[in-house]
Amino acid sequence: MDKGRFSLLLLDPGEIYFEDFSGTFIPQDATRKTYDVKRQEGRLKMCSKSLVFEPKDFTKPLIKIHLKDCVVIEEWKGSAKFIESKNALSISCKEYIEMLESNVIAPYQFKESANFLFVLNYANISNCLTMIAQLHRASTLPSVEQSNMIAAIVHSRHSRVSFDPLWLDLYETIMLETQADKVCPLNINPGRCVLTNMRLYFQPYNNVEAYLVLKINLNSIKRIVKRRFLLRHIGLEIYSSNSTASNLPIYLSLRNQNERDSLYEALLDQPELKLDNLQQDVITLQWQNGIISNYEYLQYINSLGDRTVNDLTQYPVFPWIISNYKGEELDLNDPSNFRDLSKPVGAWNDDRLARLLERYNEMAAPKFIYGSHYSTPGFVLYYLARLYPHYVLCMQGGRFDHPDRMFNSVADAYKNCCNNMSDFKELIPEFYDTEQEGRFLLNSKGINFGLRHNNVKVGDVELPLWANSPKHFVEILKSALESDFVSNNLHHWIDLVFGYKQKGDEAIKANNLFYHLCYEGNVDLESISDPNERHALEIQIMEFGQIPKQVFTVPHPKRIQQPQILPAKTSLSNQFNLKTTFNSHKNTVSHLILSQDKITSVGHDSKLKVFSLEHNRQTRSANIGNMPLSSCVQLPNSSVLVIGCWDNQMLLYDMDYGRVTIDILAHEDAVTCLTYGQKCQLLLSGSSDCNVKIWKGLADNPKELLLHKHLDHNSAVSCIRFDPEENCFAVGTEDGEIYIWQVRDFGLFKKYNLGSKINALDYSPDGQKLAIGTENGSFQVLEVNTGMPVFSKTLQSNVCSLKWSGQLLVIGCQNGLLSLWDMFEVRLLLEIEAHTGAICCVAITTDKSLVATGSQDKTIKVWTTQSDSII
Q1: Which residue has the higher pLDDT, 516 or 368?
Q2: What is the CATH number of domain 165-275?
Q3: Is a pLDDT exceeding 50 seen at residue 825?
Q4: Start-end of the WD repeats (predicted)?
Q5: What is the 3-state secondary structure of 641-675?
Q6: Domain covering 8-158 assigned CATH 2.30.29.30 in the classification
Q7: Domain 320-544's class?
Q8: H or E element: which one contains 139?
Q9: pLDDT digits (tens, 9 = 90+) for 488-545
Q10: 531-544 and 143-158 helices cross at what angle (nearest 10)?
């Protein structure tokens, strides 16, 4: 259906379009002879602040009459004999606007006072005039009172509209119905939102949309994100693969936060809804591993920071990357061609920064370094004026910017950002979007933006010499964004814009402090009772730009250097099989040592067991004391085992002689965990007495233990593990704390608190991350240096054990579930019910061909895998 030339962008930002009427516009100079030639058939649009007449003839301009400029609005009582109908509206105004003459996008033409006559074909003039008179009355009020009166009119009018049940299928049931606004750049369109057990509907109150009702199948919705709209937490953005929605997210704003949250919860309660929640959990780790690109990760972080293309006040922000826009060639292997990503734009130029800081130091509170922001609606449209000239006209009252102030040259724009005392803007995603091929740089619509100071007409954006076309330019920028230099430094920029350097003391240290109204929470708008003051603050905040929602409160981890891209794997369900089961323990199996030919285990039955995998039978059983055994380690190149016991002892058991050679009262409470470092030749023991003790001497004499150091903790030690290089070791405790100790001097390197007992932990092969399982069923991957959780998943049951080897991570849970994860692609490979009790220990062979599990159900199981399906 042809919707004509009218759009909400022809209205003032935020203006509401109600309805239209078929009618005829009679120009004031029309006579009996010229009537048939001069009259214009079309539709009269009634809007909250204006009346707009849209002629059917595309060569005629649309006429927009602001209600505030109207002197007279009344029913026509004239007597022109060539006008048969008396059902006409007469308007006298001080000024009116002509738009889109000959359907050409151009600055609006502002005309002097005039009289208008509109003959309505079907609508009753008395009924229409009542509503128009109310809106005219509102236009005479101060802005705040005007907004309140219009809101009351809108609410009254829309509350009388109900959802048409004929849109529903036979078995659909309405779960929730509410009013909502569809948010688009620079405008909103009110309507009714209806949730059923099968679909989400949006029915606009007017006919400006291309559809009568928007239908979104619940099973097509992939993501639902709560948004902040106009400083209030009332937005909801819905990402869907539904063809009706053109694969674009629909952005809704509700009347208040409670209604938004009610719709959000109601959506999540629908069985038909299948969200891609896993993708949200794994994205940072996938980025680190190189599964997703820097461009995709920046899109994701922008979304987390409440940035969306549907809202120009919170448009996605991307960094300047390249610093060389004058050379004929661009070498992406030369670091000098790149911007310093550890500094905000305003800190690039030392001289400019010095002047800004001098002003800052002399300033009264609240202080700021930069008086303008890196992203505002004006800056976004500065870049996109050629692609969306109608947006510019909407935002700037029907006018384009001065030709010399437009985005005419990439080099000039970068130069201004380097030197200008009030220009600190970053870029937008379009600079790196190769699918759009840089079309925003071309004046493909042939818009007349005017002449520059040198009498040159504004045309396409001037590109650097190293780019031969907009497509080529964007491709080079995308390559630069994905380069090793950017991958190694992008985390610094994320810290500035979305992370811990965004505000507070860290922002001051990083010279990253903006005007206080840019930060959410600095002004409590809800507490301001004066509506005029509140309205003024809202306008200020919109114009100054908004800092993204803070996504990270700790330093963001660095991307892994040149990750090894491995082929995608399928499910392991056909490659993971039970090889054998041993059930000779009489109580819980607490620890396993697995090799290609045998399993050594200890249990709460005080037994040490050895099982031959080659002969599928037990080859040794030894009674080690009278208390449960908690752990054991095999000393390298030796037949000696070190065994931890609940009677506070550590025992050295010689497999060759079949006896305990040494028993040491190691702790004041049960020994809970042991680990041995082959490189550093140190044995670590953890205990319920809150201590970790470091022992040495075993390398020289496997029958001698010497206490070297002890480290205190705040609660019982539950698990302990060396990193692969044995430079550090991690300790998990019952109160949820993780300690990272340095082997060099046994100093505390890092300390983190997860809030729940740490049952198991293990280092990644590169030593940069820790996999952690807790008592509350949380499974996390923690960046060691920053403490940032790069992956988090809540499992069905408490995590009791885990082991990380290569890409493979094996997890055993209290409910007997065994899961295998590919930690490169960050996806679940397999989950099976392996035991009837808690899986207390897991082990993997070096080639990952065997996995062993020991359980509270007294059994040990050995599983075979096809190793090439895992590695």
Answers
A1: 368
A2: 2.30.29.30
A3: yes
A4: 664-696, 710-744, 832-871
A5: EEEEECCCEEEEEECCCCEEEEEEECCCCCEEEEE
A6: yes
A7: mainly alpha
A8: helix 125-139
A9: 999 999 999 999 999 999 999 999 999 988 887 776 666 666 766 766 777 777 777 8
A10: 90
